[in-house]
Each structure stands twice: as structure tokens, then as C-alpha cells.
Specification:
Helix 8 packs parallel to helix 12 and helix 25 crosses helix 27. It is built from 27 helices and 32 strands. It folds into 6 domains: about 50 residues, Phosphorylase Kinase, domain 1; about 200 residues, Rossmann fold (3-Layer(aba) Sandwich), CATH 3.40.50; about 180 residues, Dimethylsulfoxide Reductase, domain 2 (3-Layer(aba) Sandwich), CATH 3.40.228; about 120 residues, Barwin-like endoglucanases (Beta Barrel); about 110 residues, no CATH class; about 55 residues, Arc Repressor Mutant, subunit A (Orthogonal Bundle), CATH 1.10.10.1100. It is globular and about 80 Å long. The two termini are about 45 Å apart. A hairpin with a 4-residue loop joins strand 28 and strand 29. The protein has about 900 residues and is an alpha/beta fold. Molybdenum atom binds next to loops. This is Molybdopterin-dependent oxidoreductase. Keywords: 4Fe-4S, Iron, Iron-sulfur, Metal-binding, Molybdenum, Nitrate assimilation, Oxidoreductase.
Length: about 900
């Protein structure tokens, strides 16, 4: 490869969470990239979390989709685009516009999203475009619209720093919005902010909580109704929104028992909230992902509306968005029931205005199908052509097996992705390679309405093209070339900005019309800015003046009668909670490429309360089969009192590519909130029983591992790959099986103890460890960090001991991903160097001093060392996190 001189840093934006951190990306001249936090970006002021810091490890060509494919064969772009356009046009001609659909993503750039929405709603003439934001923000959107008359996030990040009390409801901010969490933690340190966490689970976020309410799952509306009644009792109602009396009456009628919380804990919460004029209530998926999610959102908004604690410094409700451009998608009208620029699909004047602006032949006039219903329509053949862009529904949708079957059975499926092998891509007729982060240009809007540029730093991988251009090229081939004739995302952005000027005349709040005439140069130089941005208004908070976007100008309170989740049954007695881990992003197509992000939690797991584990006869690190009427998963058991009895938790990240049966959404029913259509992803009724394998194994190889056994989970290493394995029956010939699985040949070094059922093999190549396999009748007990560190080294046969010799240190499972500091190193440091604080650990060992994402875990380890000195540190990564 031609080494070029390194180029200067490019200012861009992180493609992961909705915090929207500014990133300085420096190409190394050899196709790679180094990253740092952008000190000038207002969201992060130079900070990055662990996922952002590892971005440079995910931009290689590994796993990328490099050329279009038709039925598994590489094809030219013209051939693929012609086929897509023809099949969509034919289907529409024969069966009408509602026989086709797009399923898109809050990870698309605003420009991509705008073009997809314009094509479907204005030209195809159907509103069958929905997005993974349906699984994510739909209840917040619906709650905002009911309360404010528009989908507007009132506040700013600095409100979390200016508040006296911050309440986090159903939000694991420490792991899911880490930089915002760090800002809050710093403010708390500086000014003593009181922090309340409301979550049935004790999460890493509880590290900074003055009060943790481990309420009964799904009882949030009860709690906020109790708060509203208390607000009235204390005479704190200062405003007169619509339906105030009805909402207060509903609140007064609410009994506290459903929360399962002691009276004194509820009282502490009420005192804190009511006693803090400056209070911010942050909420996220523990609220939204519920079959009464919209009511829960409104129960929270009611309290802020009644007290006027909204749109003021340090006060307001705050729905933090998950995806980098969840907000941009809402702005362009990416949901099936919205129109562009916060306009309303069911309003004829709005439709006419948008149609006039687009000069389009038709306009969808009724809401399209929402995600769950969309895939049901794919299943029963109402939708005959489907285009999935930038999302992986075969993994992330509820009833995921049913969704995968529906996609497989659909007449024509197109998938645009940057990765070649995903659970969804496997089911497509046509695969279109999209440029990924670092290769594309456009804008994203973060949780506080700040629009930032993503900028191209690297050349597109292979033949990959930008999503907006792919969609526009298909539109042109369907006969609408002149309406889709942009040469750059700058022009798309300018059109969107101009449309916002039209929308504002119809009462929309979304207004960036200042940028309607933006040139390509100005677009390239665009600094992060808050919307609105027009001659009328620039940035700032909304609703502090008491004026809302309703016909009366008043806010609307919603009387909420709390509804609890569907009861569990005798056959499925556990309520499964689901969510995220610190170092992985969704279906792992990108974070799974990073060795450093794959070390923290390397296997799909089930957090189970000790009492449940004992009753089910599930030992720590054993395997459990989790089943619902819809499907089954096999997960590693992590016994912990972080979860309550009866309420286990499992992460969402594992797929058919990374585990045998780790897809958690195969268990989750499609039941959705009647207002928002958002599914209840956090409360599946499941049964749990031991999965008793005949053998368990752990393997590493410098080659890709191809497991063929009943249980497996793979992860990427710096020097190769690892796999956890288990099987119901032993293979006839272990050596042959090992060679096939680990991609090696030749005679291994072998240690065998048939009495104990132990078999260990090491394959050497040129004196270096090429692969090794450990088999045991129980979950393999060995130092994984040692085995992983030995891969590729001249360790010889000593590796078969499975742990380091007495003269070598065993770092233990990874805690600090940035500096690769293991749990044993930290526990030893605490014991021998008398490290008493997280900062002291940092000074001595480096851990926690770069991105800071592991600081809650370091604090937990300090606590553990104090309460259980000398306790063994397990090396099975899932047993470590935050324990
Ligand atoms: N590391 C990482 N960060 C991410 C992502 C990622 O994949 N990985 N994804 C991003 C995206 S798209 C999103 S949407 C956000 C999500 O961010 P969060 O919403 O913070 O994340 P989750 O882990 O889905 O769920 C949050 C919490 O809800 C709790 N919960 C479950 N049921 C209830 C309930 O009934 N009431 C209450 N009060 N709480 C409950 C869970 O125990 C969990 O701790 O994260 C974003 N950030
Ligand atoms: N049980 C349960 N299920 C859940 C959740 C939960 O908490 N519990 N959370 C839900 C939520 S909040 C969300 S947001 C979803 C997320 O679920 P998904 O959206 O399905 O997850 P991702 O892995 O982010 O999928 C993004 C896909 O787009 C590809 N991609 C990345 N960049 C680009 C690009 O620029 N262009 C194109 N064309 N492709 C690209 C990636 O390779 C990947 O395949 O999961 C939902 N599912
Ligand atoms: S907090 Fe982390 S994942 Fe989120 S935008 Fe910032 S660096 Fe990216
Ligand atoms: Mo999300």
C-alpha cells in the first residue's frame, strides 16, 4: 500500500448514540483512522466514551459489503438499481402503492432519510415507510404531540448541569449515553446535584444515584401519578394546562401498591422532586418500550406541565434519543404517521403544502403501517416489495423469528447495508452496499436538537454508495428524475431547510429556513447549531413562555389511568427485561469488529437473581434455556442481585452471526402501545430451565472460528477469534472437529484426562500458538484473558495449563477497554497498593483515565473489595460487569 502523508483532522460526529459527540478523525494515510473528542463540540467538549474512542477499529474493510449482489451473485450497480426500480414499479402498477414498503433507520443521515420519505410519501404515494425509531422513540413522539401539540424536546443538555435534581427513569445513562452521564456526574461533583434512578434493575448508572427506586416493572405511570397528586397537595400547581382537573383526578385515584416500593422510598422521591424547582426528568426505553408507553410519557410530562418546570434553565422533561439521528428522522417525517418538517399527514392543508413544494404527482393521505403491522403485512402478502435500509429487523424486531420468516417469504426484498453478512441481509434478493461512517457526508440531530455535520474522511469501501444517492437513483429509474436530481447532500439539506420555511407558516416548530440557500461551501463549514434557526428564532429552549403548539396555545395534560404489563403465566412465570451493554451497539455489526469493545462482555447472558438461580438449579456461568411461546434462546447465567426475583435481564446485541441462539427478540411478543405503536420490548413472559450440555468448551484461533455445536458464541480478538462452546453430544473425533471449527490442520499438542472428562488441544504454527481448544464436562474454568493473550505467542505447551504460571500475572476479565486493564489487576492493586478511590486506581493502573466508561465498574470493584476481601475474580467476562 502506498503510504501517504497523514492528513489533518476532520471534524465530524460519532455515529452511535444520541448524545451526538463531536469527533476529530485523522486519516493515517494508509486507509485507517485515529479519533479524538472534538473540544469545540458543545455536546462533548472533547470527551468520548469507549465506543466513540474505538471508532478507528471499525472502519476497515473487514466484513464490508463491497459490491451489489443479486440472489447472492455480485452484480453491477446499473443492473441492481434497474432491477429494484422495475420490481417496485411493477408491484405498484399491479397492486397499488400500498403493496410496497420501506423500513428505515434512525441511523440514516437526515439527507438520506429525507430522500426516502419524499420518494415513498410524495411519489410512490404511500405512507408505508416506517423506521426502527418505532421501536425506540415512538412513545415519546406521541407523548410530546399529545402534550405540546408538536414533537419537540424542550430542553438542553446544560439543563442536566444546572438542575438541583435529575431523575433518570428507565435510562441506563452510564452505559447508553455515557458522555451525558459524565457531564451529569461532573455537575453532581461540583454542585451536589441530587440524582434519582428509577429502574427495576440496579445499573451502572446507580453509581451516582442518591436514591434508587427499584420499582415493579411497568409501574412508572403509577409513580408519576403519585407525584402529580403530591404536587397538588403541596400547592405546587402553578399552571392551567388543558385537562388539568381530569389529570389531577386520575392521579388522586392512583394507589401506590403497584410500584412495590416502600412508602418511605416513595416519600423520599416525592420530597426530592417537589422540593427542587430545578428538576429534570430524563427518560428513555424503560418508559417508551411498553404497551402503555405513551401514557407513561404523559404521566411524566404532566408533572412538569402542572408546575411550569419546563423550558427553563435546569428544569424540564428530557427524552434522550438513542440513535445518532433519531431526531433527524422525526424532523423529516420518517415515521409512517408523520409528514416532513413536523407536519401532519392527516391534515389536508399540510399535505397540499408539501405536495406543492415537492411538485409531486400524488401524496399519501393516510398513515402507513407501523413497524409491527408492516412486517405482519409482509407476512400475509399485502406487502410484496420491501426495502430495508440501515437496520437489522431479523434481530431487533419483536417476534424476530416471525419477522425473519416474513422477510424470507416476501416476493422481493432489498437490503442496503454496509456489512455483507447480517441476519437480515441473508434473506434479501438484492443487497446494496452503502457507505458507512467516515465515508459519507450529511447531518444528524442529537437529543438536544443540535444539528451537526458528519463528514467524509475515508474513500468509500469498494463500490459502496451513499444511501441518499442510491434512493435517488432508484427514484430516477422509476420516472421521477427531476425531483431527485441533487448532486450533493448539501442540496438535499437546502431543500429540507426551504421546506421547513413553508412548514413554519402552517404552525410547525421545526424551522431551519436560515439554511434554505446554503451553498456547498457553507455546508462543508457548517458548525453544530441548535434548531430552530431562522430569522424568527434561533436555538434556545421551548415552552418556557407557556406557549405551546396546540390550537389554544396551552399545553395539554393527559389523565392517565396506569396500566400494568400483561401478567405472566404459570407456564412462562418470569418477566424478561432487555437492554444494552456498555461496549456494544445493537446488532454488533460494527462494534463486533473491534477487539477492544468485544472483550468487556463477550457472550450473550441472562442476569438472574440468586433466589431464582437456586430454585432453577442454575449455577453461576452455567447455561440456561429461555423460552416464550414464540421462540427460545440459550444464554450464560450471571447470578446477581442487581435484578429482582422473577425479573431477569438479557442484552439485545447477539445475532445469528455471533451466537447459536442469542437473539433475544425471538422471545419478545409484538404487543404494542395502542397510541404510538411502539412494542413492549422490556417485558416478555418467559420460562427458564437449565440447558445441560454433555461438554463445554472455550476456543481461540488466529482464523475465523466456525462452530458446529448446540451452543456457541464468538467474539473478535486483536489476534484472531474466540468462542464459547457447548454440545449435547460429544463428536466422534475431537481432533477432526477441532480442525474444522478452528480452521487449522495438523497434529495438536494434547492433554487428556478421561476420568475428569477433560481434553485440551493446542495447535502450533511456526512455534506460535495458532489455536487452542479446552473441553470439560462443566463450563470451562480457565483464565480466558491468559489464553487470549497467548494466542500468536511462543507459549508452547504451557498454554494447556489454562492459566498463567506462578511467575506470570493473570490480568483477569477486561474492565477498562481503553488500556486493557483486567479485574485481577485492579483487585490486586486495591489490595496491595491500598488504592481507595477510582482516581487512585487510575493513577496507579491507568484504568478509567481515558474515556471513563468503566468508572462505575471500578467503583463497584472498590465496594466489592471492601465487602468481600480476597474473593476470587472469575474470568468469565459476564460475571464481572459492574459486579
Ligand atoms: N452502549 C450502548 N449505548 C447505546 C445503545 C447501544 O446499543 N449500546 N443504543 C442506543 C439506543 S438506539 C437507545 S434507544 C438507547 C437506550 O438507552 P436506555 O433506555 O438507557 O437503555 P436500555 O438498556 O434499553 O434500557 C434502560 C433501562 O430500562 C430499564 N427498565 C426496564 N423496564 C423498566 C420499567 O418498567 N421501568 C423503568 N423505569 N425502567 C425499566 C432497564 O432495566 C434498563 O436498565 O441507548 C443508546 N445508546
Ligand atoms: N428486546 C429489545 N429489542 C430492541 C430494543 C430493546 O431494548 N429490547 N431496542 C430497540 C431499539 S431502541 C432500537 S434503536 C433497535 C436497533 O436495532 P437495529 O436498527 O436493527 O440495529 P443496528 O445493529 O443498529 O442495525 C443497523 C444496521 O445498519 C447498518 N448500517 C450502519 N451504518 C449504515 C449506513 O450508513 N447505511 C446503511 N444502509 N446501513 C448502515 C449496520 O451494519 C446494521 O446492519 O433495536 C430495537 N430492539
Ligand atoms: S457518548 Fe459515546 S457513543 Fe454516544 S455519541 Fe458520544 S462518543 Fe459516541
Ligand atoms: Mo433506539
Amino acid at each position: 500500500m502506498n503510504m501517504q502523508h497523514p492528513r489533518p483532522a476532520v471534524r465530524t460526529t460519532c455515529p452511535y448514540c444520541g448524545v451526538g459527540c463531536g469527533v476529530l478523525a485523522t486519516p493515517d494515510g494508509a486507509g485507517g483512522l485515529s479519533v479524538a473528542g472534538d473540544p469545540r463540540h458543545p455536546a462533548n467538549k472533547g470527551r468520548l466514551c469507549v465506543k466513540g474512542s474505538a471508532l478507528g477499529e471499525t472502519t476497515g474493510l473487514d466484513g464490508r459489503l463491497l459490491a451489489p449482489q443479486i440472489d447472492g451473485q455480485e452484480a453491477g450497480w446499473d443492473q441492481a438499481l434497474d432491477l429494484v426500480a422495475r420490481r417496485f414499479s411493477d408491484t405498484i402498477a399491479r397492486h397499488g402503492p400500498d403493496a410496497v414498503a420501506f423500513y428505515v433507520s434512525g441511523q440514516l443521515l437526515t439527507e438520506d432519510y429525507y430522500v426516502a420519505n419524499k420518494l415513498m410519501k410524495g411519489f410512490i404515494g404511500s405512507a408505508n415507510i416506517d423506521t426502527n425509531s418505532r421501536l425506540c422513540m415512538a412513545s415519546s413522539v406521541a407523548g410530546h404531540r399529545r402534550a405540546f401539540g408538536t414533537d419537540t424536546v424542550p430542553g438542553l443538555y446544560e439543563d442536566l448541569e444546572e438542575a438541583d435534581c435529575v431523575v433518570l427513569v428507565g435510562s441506563n445513562l452510564a452505559w447508553c449515553h455515557p458522555v451525558l452521564y459524565q457531564r451529569l456526574a461532573a455537575a453532581r461533583e461540583a454542585r451536589g446535584t441530587r440524582v434519582v434512578v428509577i429502574d427495576p434493575r440496579r445499573t451502572a448508572t446507580c453509581d451516582i444515584a442518591d436514591l434508587h427506586l427499584a420499582l415493579a416493572p411497568g409501574s412508572d405511570a403509577t409513580l408519576f401519578n403519585l407525584l402529580l397528586a403530591e404536587i397538588e397537595r403541596r400547592g405546587l400547581v402553578t399552571e392551567s394546562p388543558e385537562s388539568l382537573a381530569e389529570a389531577l383526578a386520575a392521579a388522586r385515584a392512583t394507589l401506590p401498591s403497584a410500584t412495590g416500593l416502600p412508602h418511605s422510598t416513595i416519600r423520599q422521591f416525592l420530597d426530592l422532586w417537589c422540593g427542587s424547582e430545578r428538576v429534570v426528568t430524563v427518560y428513555s426505553q424503560g418508559v417508551n418500550q411498553s404497551d402503555s408507553g405513551t401514557d407513561k410519557v404523559n404521566a411524566i410530562l404532566n408533572c412538569h406541565l402542572a408546575t411550569g418546570r419546563i423550558g427553563r434553565p435546569g428544569a424540564g422533561p428530557f427524552s434522550v434519543t438513542g440513535q445518532p439521528n433519531a431526531m433527524g428522522g422525526r424532523e423529516v417525517g420518517g415515521l409512517a404517521n408523520m409528514l416532513a418538517c413536523h407536519l401532519d399527514i392527516e391534515n389536508a392543508a399540510h399535505r397540499d403544502a408539501v405536495q406543492g413544494f415537492w411538485g409531486s404527482p400524488r401524496m399519501a393521505d393516510t398513515p402507513g403501517l407501523k413497524a409491527v403491522d408492516m412486517f405482519r403485512a409482509v407476512e400475509d402478502g399485502r406487502i410484496k416489495a420491501l426495502w430495508i435500509i440501515c437496520t437489522n429487523p431479523a434481530v431487533s424486531m419483536p417476534e424476530a423469528d416471525r419477522v425473519a420468516r416474513a422477510i424470507k417469504g416476501c416476493d422481493f426484498v432489498v437490503v442496503s447495508d454496509m456489512i455483507a453478512r447480517t441476519d437480515t441481509a441473508r434473506l434479501a434478493h438484492v443487497l446494496l452496499p452503502a457507505t458507512g461512517w467516515g465515508e459519507k457526508d450529511g447531518t444528524v440531530t442529537n437529543s438536544e436538537r443540535r444539528i451537526s455535520r458528519q463528514r467524509r474522511v475515508l474513500a468509500p469501501a469498494g463500490q459502496a454508495r451513499d444511501d441518499w444517492r442510491i434512493i435517488a437513483d432508484v427514484a430516477a429509474r422509476m420516472g421521477w428524475g427531476s425531483a431527485f436530481a441533487w448532486d450533493s447532500p448539501a442540496q438535499v439539506f437546502a431543500e429540507h431547510a426551504a421546506l421547513s420555511g413553508v412548514a413554519v407558516a402552517l404552525g410547525s416548530d421545526f424551522d431551519i429556513s436560515d439554511h434554505a440557500g446554503i451553498t456547498r461551501q457553507d455546508y462543508d463549514a457548517l458548525e453544530p447549531f441548535l434548531w430552530p434557526q431562522s430569522s424568527r428564532r434561533k436555538g434556545g429552549r421551548f415552552f418556557g413562555d407557556g406557549r405551546f403548539h396546540t390550537p389554544s396555545g396551552k399545553a395539554r395534560m393527559v389523565p392517565v389511568v396506569p396500566r400494568l404489563p400483561q401478567p405472566v403465566s404459570e407456564a412462562h412465570p418470569f418477566r424478561l427485561n432487555t437492554g444494552r451493554v456498555r461496549d456494544h451497539w445493537h446488532t454488533m455489526t460494527r462494534t463486533g469488529l473491534s477487539p477492544r469493545l468485544s472483550r468487556h462482555l463477550a457472550e450473550p447472558f441472562l442476569e438472574l437473581h440468586p433466589a431464582d438461580a437456586a430454585r432453577l438449579d442454575l449455577a453461576p456461568a452455567s447455561l440456561a434455556e429461555v423460552s416464550s411461546p414464540l421462540g427460545r434462546a440459550i444464554l450464560r447465567v450471571l447470578v446477581t442481585d442487581r435484578v429482582a426475583p422473577g425479573h431477569p435481564f438479557a442484552p439485545i446485541h447477539w445475532t445469528g452471526e455471533t451466537a447459536a441462539s442469542g437473539r433475544i427478540d425471538v422471545l419478545v411478543p409484538g404487543a404494542a402501545d395502542p397510541v404510538s405503536g411502539q412494542p413492549a420490548s422490556k417485558s416478555a413472559a418467559v420460562a427458564i430451565r437449565p440447558f445441560k450440555a454433555a461438554w463445554y468448551g472455550f476456543a481461540v484461533s488466529t482464523h475465523p472460528i466456525r462452530p458446529a455445536c448446540d451452543y456457541w458464541a464468538t467474539a473478535t480478538l486483536a489476534t484472531g477469534h474466540q468462542a464459547e462452546l457447548a454440545g449435547l453430544a460429544e463428536p466422534g473425533d475431537w481432533a477432526e472437529t477441532a480442525c474444522a471449527m478452528l480452521g487449522v490442520a495438523g497434529e495438536p499438542l494434547v492433554v487428556r484426562d478421561p476420568r475428569k472428562g477433560i481434553l485440551r488441544m493446542a495447535f502450533m504454527a511456526e512455534g506460535r500458538l495458532e489455536a487452542t481448544l479446552f473441553i470439560a464436562p462443566e463450563p470451562a474454568a480457565l483464565s480466558r484473558s491468559h489464553v487470549v493473550a497467548s494466542l500468536g505467542s511462543r507459549c508452547g505447551g504451557t498454554i494447556l495449563a489454562g492459566r498463567p504460571g506462578a511467575d506470570q500475572a493473570d490480568a483477569g476479565a477486561l474492565v477498562c477497554a481503553c488500556f486493557g486493564v483486567g479485574i485481577n489487576t485492579i483487585l490486586q492493586g486495591i489490595a496491595t497498593q491500598k488504592l481507595m478511590t477510582v482516581d487512585a486506581i487510575g493513577k496507579a493502573l491507568g484504568a478509567g483515565t481515558n474515556c471513563g466508561s468503566c468508572r462505575p465498574e471500578l467503583k463497584a470493584l472498590l465496594g466489592q473489595a471492601r465487602s468481600q476481601p480476597g474473593r476470587d475474580a472469575h474470568d468469565l467476562a459476564p460475571l464481572v460487569a459492574g459486579e
